[in-house]
Structure formats: structure tokens, C-alpha cells
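A reminder from the course coordinator: this example appears on the midterm review sheet, so study it carefully.

Given structure:
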């Protein structure tokens, strides 16, 4: 009896330790294993732990390589697998599974060895290049320079990939330019095949460097290389990709606010990517007002030109219409040469001078004075841009985008369903966000002027203030 009583406290202590272990396991922690994918970026395997339905108190963690494949939750990120806003240690972003895995294993025969978690990671040394470090990238050549930033073509020492380094100079008395902060904060959450990918952010005392995927040229340079209008099939693919990217950000209540050919990057395969989010804004409150000093003049909608500060996604859709016409016709739709007055006159010459019947509320806009404008009647768009008549349904789509009254403009999502795109493969509408349109069979660019796609020379992309063209 005494022996039994003496052994009771020891048994209770052991039971207490096992209960404590069980409690610890049941607090839903994740196990993460890293390995490199084909692009050299981290690939994350995550298994969420729980003791739910586990049998017995002696359940401990199995080594990762003994976990059945059906118990693992595998998350693979396309092109980039790290969050540049998290600490750079392994650049692991914690991912939680909604399915709890119950993992059992037997304790060792001695019962004295503590369970071990095996973590697989890529070999590295303290001197290995890491994300988030300035010396992890090699500058190859300057691509462009602007008022506060310089863009370089670079190469990552981490994975050997080409990148674009947008180096923003920091002024001690002025701090970081707000446009750079805005661009970085928005882009870090946008993952789409038709939006330029932000790989990394490097912050030093003198500079803030945004590391983007490298894209060879932009739509402005592409059109300059092929004057007189692009191949109609290529226009359709470029426009589809533009609308696809816009639909993605508009669904997240983000306005780009500076759509123009210089801000649409074109890869060597023909993939179009939205870039330069320095003027972009997250629009969460519909009644909020914004500055009317947005959008380059040629692509600025009439409501903004007239002083409106209350706008939504329709602001971007006017720019889409202007770019669409320019790709087909080969010249800018409304190339104002003087000032806002001249720009409005060019718009009204084609679309008609607005009044309260055609544009409810126009008289309440700050800069609308009827006596200042010539009274024009609306024309068919083909009268202004004859090449619209050469492509089925092109004029109808352009007319639904180029509406003076903002609420009449087609949304990006609705435009994707327009009959103009009816001859494209249906598979294009089923793609995931990070899938390229060129992953669909038989989708490819047509040769322009018999030359085909080319990789062009130095460009001035990736940032506000990098273009020498002023509209």
C-alpha cells in the first residue's frame, strides 16, 4: 500500500506532463518546410497541427518526411513566394490550413527523448545573398531617370533572374515620396499576370528601392516601333489583358488613375502588365473626394477635366477607350496641344458638347461654362477614326467606353464580355489570376509589319517622373 501511495505522485506528474504536451499541440501551430522551386524562389509546405481525434496521450510529432502526402497542405506561389514587407529571414509567410491534420507517432522505447521537428530549408550561409538586401542585386544598366527615381536593369544574386530596380532618392528633410509609399503598399497585395510584380523592397538611409520583375518594353514604345496602327488581333489581345488587369484591381476597390501607354508594360512574349501605381488609390468610401490633378492630359476624362473630384472606376475606363482607339488608329485619340480647354474642345468635337440632357449634372461641375465651348453635335466614331470600321464591333466597344457622362461608361468586367472579344478562345475567361493568356493554346501575337515581336532597347518605365514625354 505504501509503495502504491509513493508511486502515485510520480504517475500524476507524468500524466500532467502529457496533458501539458497535448494542450500545447492543440493550440494550432504550423510547421513550415522550405525548398526552392524551379524559379529559385521559396516553395512553402504547411501542415497545421491539432490533437483532435488523436488516440492516446503519447501522440507526438512525426518528422516531416514521414507525413503522408494527403496530410500536407501545399501552397506554391507563382513567380514570387515571399512578402517583401515581412522580415527577410527566409522570407516565409505563414499560411494556415483550414484542415487540421492529426499526426501520431510512437514515443521512443526509452521515453526520454524529446520529440524533434525536422525543418527542411535550402542551404545557406551567413554570407549568402538574401531578399531585402541591397547587395543581393547587381545593377546592369540604367533604363531611365526622373525627378525622384532612377530605374536600372538588374540581376538578382539570389536566383539569377533579371529585375528592374526602381531606386528612389530620399531627402532627409522631405522623407520618402508619398507616391512611392502608395505604390509599394498597393502592389504588395496585387498578384495578377497582368499587373507588374513587386519582388522586393530595400530600404536604406539614402534610398528606397522597389524591385520589380523585368519587362522589356511598354505599349508606347511598341506603337512607336509599329506606326500606323497595330495588327487588329494584337490590339484585341492587348485590350483583353488590360481589361483583365483592371477588372482585378477594380474588384478590390483600387483605381489606377494614370492609364496611358507608357504605364502598360509589354513583355517579349506579348504579355501586357499594368505598372506605375504611384497615383493609384484604394477607394473604400464611395462619397470620398479625390484630386482632379490625375491622369496624363491626353487620357484624362472630361469629368475630371471639368473639375470633378468624385469619381470611381469609370475614371480608368475612359483611359481604356483612348488607348483602344490609339492602338487601332495609330494616333492618340485626343492629343490636346495647349491646355485643358483645348483638350475638352477636341473631345467635344467628336462626342458632342454636353448639356443637362446628355450629361445630368454637368452644369454643376466647377469648370463647366457653356459659353466657353463651341457647340458641337456628336459624330459616329468612325468619322473621327476610320480604322474602327475595319474591325467587327470595335466602334461599338469604343463608343461605350468613350462616354462623357461617367456613369454611362462600360465597366472592365462588362467590357470583357463585349461581342468584340467573341472570337477569342472561351478558355481565356476561365484563367486563374496568375495565368497568362498565352498559356491557352493558339493564343499568340501576330507579326507587326512582317517583323514579329522584338525586344526593344532602353526604356523609361516603372515609375512616375521617368518619362520625358509630357502631355
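Designed residues:
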Amino acid at each position: 500500500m505504501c509503495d502504491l501511495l509513493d508511486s502515485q505522485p510520480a504517475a500524476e506528474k507524468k500524466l500532467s506532463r502529457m496533458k501539458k504536451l497535448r494542450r500545447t499541440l492543440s493550440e494550432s501551430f504550423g510547421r513550415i518546410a522550405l525548398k526552392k522551386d524551379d524559379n529559385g524562389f521559396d516553395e512553402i509546405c504547411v501542415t497545421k497541427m491539432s490533437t483532435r481525434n488523436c488516440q492516446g496521450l503519447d501522440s507526438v510529432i512525426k518528422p516531416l518526411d514521414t507525413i503522408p502526402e494527403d496530410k500536407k497542405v501545399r501552397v506554391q506561389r507563382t513567380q514570387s513566394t515571399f512578402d517583401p514587407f515581412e522580415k527577410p529571414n527566409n522570407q516565409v509567410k505563414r499560411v494556415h490550413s483550414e484542415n487540421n491534420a492529426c499526426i501520431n507517432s510512437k514515443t521512443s522505447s526509452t521515453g526520454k527523448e524529446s520529440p524533434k521537428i525536422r525543418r527542411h530549408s535550402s542551404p545557406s550561409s551567413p554570407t549568402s545573398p538574401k531578399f531585402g538586401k541591397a547587395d543581393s542585386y547587381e545593377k546592369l544598366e540604367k533604363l531611365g531617370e526622373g525627378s525622384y527615381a532612377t530605374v536600372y536593369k538588374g540581376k538578382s544574386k539570389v536566383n539569377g533572374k533579371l529585375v528592374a530596380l526602381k531606386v528612389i532618392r530620399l531627402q532627409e528633410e522631405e522623407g520618402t515620396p508619398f507616391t512611392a509609399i502608395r505604390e509599394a503598399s498597393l502592389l504588395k497585395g496585387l498578384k495578377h499576370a497582368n499587373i507588374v510584380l513587386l519582388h522586393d523592397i530595400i530600404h536604406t538611409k539614402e534610398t528606397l528601392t522597389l524591385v520589380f520583375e523585368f519587362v522589356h518594353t511598354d505599349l508606347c514604345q511598341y506603337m512607336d516601333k509599329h506606326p500606323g496602327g497595330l495588327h487588329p488581333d494584337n490590339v484585341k489581345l492587348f485590350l483583353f489583358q488590360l481589361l483583365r488587369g483592371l477588372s482585378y484591381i477594380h474588384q478590390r476597390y483600387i483605381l489606377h488613375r494614370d492609364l496611358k501607354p507608357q504605364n502598360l508594360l509589354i513583355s517579349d512574349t506579348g504579355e501586357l502588365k499594368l505598372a506605375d501605381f504611384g497615383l493609384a488609390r484604394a477607394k473604400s468610401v464611395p462619397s470620398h473626394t479625390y484630386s482632379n490633378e490625375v491622369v496624363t492630359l491626353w487620357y484624362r476624362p472630361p469629368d475630371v477635366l471639368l473639375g470633378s473630384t468624385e469619381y470611381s472606376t469609370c475614371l480608368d475606363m475612359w483611359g481604356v477607350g483612348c488607348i483602344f482607339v490609339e492602338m487601332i488608329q495609330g494616333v492618340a485619340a485626343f492629343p490636346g496641344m495647349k491646355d485643358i480647354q483645348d483638350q475638352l474642345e477636341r473631345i467635344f468635337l467628336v462626342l458632342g458638347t454636353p448639356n443637362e440632357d446628355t450629361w445630368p449634372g454637368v452644369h454643376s461641375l466647377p469648370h463647366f461654362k457653356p459659353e466657353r465651348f463651341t457647340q458641337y453635335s456628336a459624330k459616329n466614331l468612325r468619322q473621327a477614326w476610320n480604322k474602327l470600321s475595319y474591325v467587327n464591333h470595335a466602334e461599338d466597344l469604343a463608343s461605350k467606353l468613350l462616354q462623357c457622362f461617367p456613369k454611362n461608361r462600360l465597366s472592365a468586367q462588362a467590357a470583357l464580355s463585349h461581342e468584340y472579344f467573341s472570337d477569342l478562345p472561351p478558355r481565356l475567361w476561365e484563367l486563374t489570376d496568375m495565368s497568362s493568356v498565352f498559356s491557352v493554346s493558339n493564343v499568340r501575337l501576330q507579326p507587326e509589319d512582317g517583323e514579329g515581336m522584338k525586344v526593344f532597347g532602353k526604356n523609361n518605365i516603372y515609375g512616375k517622373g521617368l518619362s520625358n514625354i509630357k502631355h
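The domain at 218-439 is CATH 1.10.510.10 (Transferase(Phosphotransferase); domain 1). The chain has three domains: 25-115, 134-213, 218-439.
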